[in-house]
Each structure stands twice: as structure tokens, then as C-alpha cells.
User: Fold this.
Amino acid sequence: MTAPVRVIGSFVSPYVRKLLACLNLKGVAYAIDPITPFYGNDEFERLSPLRRIPIFIDGDLVLSDSSVICAYVDEAYPGHALFPQPVKDRARGRWLEEYADTHLGDLFIWSLFYQRIVRPLVWKEPPDEERIRETRDRRIPAALDYLERELPAHGFLFGDIGVADISIATFFRNGEYAGFEPDETRWPRTAGFVRRTLDHPCLADLLRFETVQRSADVKGRRQALLDAGAQLTAETLGVREPRRGLIPL
Assistant:
């Protein structure tokens, strides 16, 4: 039996969620090391010099960029195609993945989720309310206006669900955690696309683990993950020495 690949990262990271959804689509067995967001020890830094998640380990191969990892998974493993085959569609899919990872990441993670959730709960700091207002009132609406022109009214971008669809939708789950959902009247295509994608089993099946990891009770989190049947070992569930500076990617 082939050993499962190993993924180090938080279930609530949109970049980790993207990778796990792609592994689910491919049917690739994986073991999770559910590191708490924004923490990590020296071993983590050795594996990821930029202190970014997810970290992906496949035998002697170690990668730590979600786009690079998903491209590798698509090429290295058979099964569900993560990227469309026509060259123009493939290029457009890569662009939308990049747009999501960079621009939507800035909007939904650093300007909303980080401000509303991480700063008060992890660092015990007040959120930047001006940044939140600017993001919600101007920057997110501008991004949604763009997506409304790009996303399909039905189904997914290139037929079956793939990396581009997942890359876009994953950020909206963090937006929900921070209290934001797209207005279905103003952005009907975007709202419908996001819901369809998040409801797909490759993503929906991860929600129970996210719910556990969002809990502040570390002991309860460990037991709940085991009870839910996650492919975890006692070693990967070990409590880690806190260390500030972990950056999601």
C-alpha cells in the first residue's frame, strides 16, 4: 500500500482547504498535521523557509506553495483533472487561480478575516476598523463586480470542478467566518457559483474539521478530530511550541 502524502497546515486556511479539496477530487490518500494558524516551531521553519502553509510532503519531495503543489498533484496522480485541457482555458484557469490567491487573499484574509478573527483572538489586538470598512465598502464590491462578469451562471468554469473554481470559492468561506456573504441580488452569478462550489463534496466534507479547529479547546479539538476519523497520528497531533509569524499561502 502506498503511504499517504502528508499535509501540514490549518483546516481554516483557504490555501490548505484548496489543496485538500484537490486531493479529495484526485482520490489521493493524505495525512494531516493540523497545525494551529500562526504558530510553528523550528522544524516547521526548516520545511517552509518562508513560514507558509500548506506544506506538502510526498516521499522525499517537500513543497510549500499551494499553486505549485496543486499543479504537481495534477501531473503526478491520475484521476480527476484539476486543470482544463484546452490551452486557452488552462491559461485562463491559472489566471483566475492567481487572482484568487493574491487579490481575494488580500481582501478576505488580510483585510477581513485577519482583522475580525485573528487579531482579537490570537494576538489580543483590536482590528483595523478603517481597513475593514474600506474593504467591505469599496474593494470587495469591485472584486465581485469583476467575478460577476467572469463566473458562469450554472455549473463550473470549465465543465467539471477544478482548481480555478476551488481557488475562488475557498476565500468566501473565510469571508463567512468574518461575517461577509455576497449579496445574491447584486451578484447573483458570484453568490450562486460560490455556494455550488462550497457545497461540492470535495469542499463540504472538510467543514467538520474546520469547525473543530476553530474551537479554542485544544484537548477537545484533538479528540474530536480523532472521533471524526481524520487520518492523524498521535505524533502529528502533538502540541507545538507557539511561534509568531506563520503566513498562510
